[in-house]
Write a structure and sequence with these properties.
heterodimer, A: Cytochrome Bc1 Complex, Chain C, two-stranded antiparallel ribbon, 21 helices, 10 strands, globular, B: Cytochrome Bc1 Complex, Chain D, domain 2, 2 domains, 2 strands, disordered N terminus, binds protoporphyrin IX containing FE, heme binding (chain B), iron (chain B)
Chain lengths: 571, 262
């Protein structure tokens, strides 16, 4: 009741109801891959929440502090205030270690989810016109996420992260002419400068998060404005979006995902140790530890530094320091290529049309091949960052590992890329719906490049089909208003238009917009109602809650699992 | 102090591409007991006393490589002047006797009982030449030990004591199995590629401090925060983030998507 009144009061003053009604009726596609971005979004939520907690205790200063606390081996040692406060967070602040670890796990998963989301966008061609701008925003967010992960990782001033920071500094320094000036500008002095930690802190908790949140808003606003893409299927055209409404179905589903993300992150934060800075010890420029790696999302750069042969390269008579090519050039080229891809692709294919329907990866073998090549390349680089761990576990010389990886980083991407092209072509030409259904004959046929006629049919714009049998639009009055639905009897599809229209004419117009050329029929009343959406959503929500508690239980007591699954299910 | 010990479980023994391990470790692990088993029928009357027992054990198990008088030979270095600490370390950690030549003797179950090791030590030291004696370990200070460890040992054994690869397939092993005396012996003796830290470098007290810290690394108390993932660092963590966490979340998304009214 209070909510009702409040809502009415707000509406009177702000005239919110038309807006909210529109927003709540917004349709989201049901395919699971559309939720990958949300995993990233909710990890960001977790990062901000846990990060605020950490900020209350973290002391961003490199001033000397004498450590006193529960960790005996450090008692009475002089370290930086940053390190000492991280130690206090880990050993003496209640729930401090849980939050710190959750923050770090969330960072790893944040970037991983962004990457998976990007891969989905890439392979389905969702970046094509009109969504290039959102692709650019997305790539920028990936870059900011990497930057924030790295600055956060470096702030505690422990030995391991200090080694990483030193490497990054030497990469920046390797830029000809401006390198060392950039470094002293950024750090306010030589490498372990006193300004370093305060600056990292401001970047980490203020500048980059603010930019990220702003870009996330732009990203989402653009999605609302441009509407979602969707996979082709019966009833789905270039002119409509088929799926669940924002409220209640989609918002409940999305909340369930939020619960999942938080559950998994906090479970990891409590059960799996991450970045034990007490073991690494405070940073000291004279010390080293090994094996030493950065977090996975910057490990590709580290791997490239390790793999790049120690060549002395001269440009215009100047010796270019070794880290320049694997560090600066590779990183620059990577992000430039990401930014440029939608435009490169448009230039190569000459396809300037707007697309609302997605490709399946097989529909575009070359793009799929390029994507797989790039992913393999970076995967090998990440593995290369662990060369010392591999060498220790296999007990083989680290130089052998490096040499093998040097060959692999050049050969493997081409192999997997070619394989991907082959499989995509085979899938596209054969009847197979899955990789497993492919026959040898399909593969053999796929070795030939696509014929010209095939190419055009796949990309042909979808035509309105005036006489597709069995398809029709049904219109009926619903009280004062009108509704419509699309029906395709042979395919067994019935899709309800999500908004009511005040007149029959408007209903017919909006139906025509979504399904141009499909015949309209008038029906007396609504079709038999589908299961009540709220009830269906509640049921889903309940199963989700069971699922989440199951996860927690499974992590703690494996045995309880069976009990939970057989337990009674609410209706 | 709590006596929980952290036993190093080779985190990816299974995954480490069996071939290399099977070739290198297999023979060492499997063959060591066989090669060592003192033929009880022929040399049964050994238990009489330190000197005899030591000599017999030495003849049967060591002389083929190190020579009758410890003078060394083509298959093993001279043992004259290595010191009691070295013998106790090598035999006590199961490195010696090695069944055949290998690049780096591995740690394993010791082949002999404590008495037999003592007898062997006595016999080998009787070859003369001095060398470091078995250190007496006393309680030490953890903070000093931590600082000494970070400055002197972490580059090879890693700040977490998880060990690392050095060069050419030599590794600095994980430190989670060595007893306090063995740690002190390793410091004084410098086995294999490890440098020797004689008393000019570390006083006995400093050795005690180091030993105390290395022991504390074994303690599960340091694994506050959960499963340490073999203490292998960020890449192992990244693997968990992808394989476990993201895997679970993507599965959850699929499940939620399937629940939708498609
Ligand atoms: C946007 C994405 C973010 C990423 C990727 C990220 C990542 C990280 C990482 C990897 C660490 C190192 C944690 C460790 O010591 O193990 C860290 C530390 C920290 N983060 Fe963040 N973070 C993000 C956002 C934030 C926000 C929004 C805040 C504050 C409002 C914040 C506050 C902190 C603080 C205070 C620390 C230092 C405390 C410590 O290291 O224990 N972070 N961050």
């Amino acid at each position: 009741m209070i909510m009702d009144r409040l809502a009415r009061a707000l509406d009177d003053r702000l005239r919110l109801s038309p807006l909210t009604r529109r927003a709540l009726a917004k349709v989201f596609p049901d395919h699971w891959s559309f939720m990958l971005g949300e995993i990233a979004l909710y990890s960001l939520v977790a990062l901000v929440l846990t990060g605020v907690f950490l900020t209350l205790f973290f002391d961003p200063s490199s001033a000397d502090r004498v450590y006193h606390g529960s960790y005996a081996p450090l008692e009475g040692t002089t370290t930086s205030a940053a390190y000492a406060s991280t130690m206090r967070l880990s050993w003496d602040v209640r729930a401090g270690l849980l939050i710190r670890q959750t923050h770090h796990w969330a960072a790893l998963i944040f970037v991983a989810a962004i990457l998976v989301h990007l891969v989905r966008i890439f392979f389905t061609g969702a970046f094509r016109k009109p969504r290039e701008a959102n692709w650019l925003v997305g790539v920028t967010m990936l870059m900011l996420a990497l930057a924030n992960g790295f600055t956060g990782y470096s702030m505690p001033d422990d030995l391991l992260s200090g080694l990483g920071l030193r490497i990054i500094v030497s990469v920046v320094e390797s830029i000809p002419v401006v390198g060392s000036r950039l470094v002293s500008l950024g750090l306010g002095g030589e490498f372990p400068s006193d300004e370093m930690i305060p600056r990292l802190f401001v970047t980490h908790v203020l500048l980059v998060p603010a930019a990220l949140v702003a870009l996330v808003s732009v990203h989402l606003a653009m999605i609302v404005r441009q509407k979602h893409t969707q996979f082709p299927g019966p009833g789905r055209t270039e002119h409509n979006v088929v799926g669940s409404r924002l409220y209640p179905s989609y918002s409940l589903r999305s909340l369930a995902l939020l619960a999942w993300v938080l559950a998994v992150l906090f479970a990891l934060g409590g059960l799996v140790q991450i970045n034990p800075v007490w073991l690494y010890g405070p940073f000291d420029p004279a010390q080293a530890t090994s094996p030493a790696q950065p977090d996975w999302y910057v490990a590709w750069g580290d791997g490239a530094l390790r793999l790049f042969p120690p060549w002395e390269i001269r440009l215009a008579g100047h010796l270019v320091p070794a880290p320049f090519f694997p560090g600066v050039v590779l990183g620059g080229v990577t992000f430039l290529a990401l930014y440029a891809w939608p435009f490169l692709e448009r230039w190569c294919t000459g396809d300037r049309r707007a697309h609302q329907l997605l490709d399946r990866p097989r529909d575009h073998p070359i793009r799929t091949g390029v994507g797989v090549t790039a992913l393999t390349f970076f995967a090998v680089l990440v593995v290369a960052a662990g060369d010392d761990i591999i060498a220790r576990l296999l007990r083989v010389p680290v130089y052998d590992v490096l040499n093998v990886l040097r060959v692999m980083v050049l050969v493997l991407p081409l192999l997997t890329g070619a394989l991907a092209v082959l499989l995509a072509r085979a899938l596209r030409r054969s009847e197979a719906t899955h990789l497993g259904d492919l026959t040898r004959a399909d593969l053999r046929a796929a070795r030939r490049p696509a014929r010209a006629d095939e190419r055009t049919t796949a990309d042909e714009p979808e035509l309105p089909a005036p006489d597709r049998p069995g398809e029709r639009i049904e219109l009926w009055p619903d009280g004062e208003q009108w509704r419509w639905r699309y029906r395709n009897e042979p395919a067994g599809v019935a899709i309800l238009g999500n908004r009511k229209a005040p007149t029959e004419r408007e209903a017919a117009d909006s139906a025509r917009l979504a399904y141009p050329g499909v015949d309209h029929v008038m029906v007396p009343g609504p079709p038999p109602p589908p299961p009540h959406p709220v009830r269906a959503a509640l049921r889903r929500w309940a199963t989700t809650a069971i699922g989440a508690s199951l996860l927690a239980a499974a992590l703690r007591h494996r045995r309880r699992r069976r009990w939970g699954r057989n337990g009674p299910r609410p209706k | 102090m709590a006596v929980w010990t952290y036993r190093w479980r080779p985190p990816a023994r299974a995954a480490t591409a069996g071939a290399v391990l099977a070739l290198a470790a297999g023979p060492a692990v499997l063959a060591a007991p066989a090669a060592v088993a003192p033929a009880p029928t022929s040399v049964a009357p050994a238990p009489t006393g330190g000197q005899d027992q030591g000599e017999n054990l030495y003849r049967q198990n060591c002389a083929s490589c190190h020579g009758d008088q410890g003078q060394g030979g083509p298959r093993g270095p001279s043992l004259i002047g290595v010191g009691a600490a070295s013998v106790d370390f090598q035999v006590g950690t199961g490195r010696m006797p090695i069944p055949h030549e290998m690049q780096q003797p591995r740690r394993g179950e010791p082949a002999f009982s404590a008495d037999e090791i003592a007898a062997l030590v006595e016999h080998v030291t009787s070859f003369g030449g001095g060398g470091p004696a078995i250190p007496q370990v006393e309680p030490g200070s953890l903070p000093t030990g931590r600082e000494l460890f970070a400055a002197n040992c972490a580059p090879c054994h890693g700040g977490t004591g998880a060990g690392t690869e050095l060069t050419n397939g030599w590794i600095a092993p994980p430190l989670y199995e060595a007893t306090p005396v063995q740690v002190a012996e390793a410091i004084r003796v410098g086995p294999g590629l490890m440098p020797v830290f004689p008393s000019q470098v570390f006083t006995d007290q400093q050795v005690n401090d180091l030993t105390a810290y290395v022991q504390s690394l074994r303690s599960e108390r340091l694994d506050r925060g959960g499963n340490p993932l073999g203490r292998l660092g960020p890449l192992a963590e990244g693997l968990v983030a992808w394989a476990v966490a993201l895997g679970l979340l993507v599965a959850a998304a699929r499940w939620l998507g399937r629940g939708a009214g498609e």
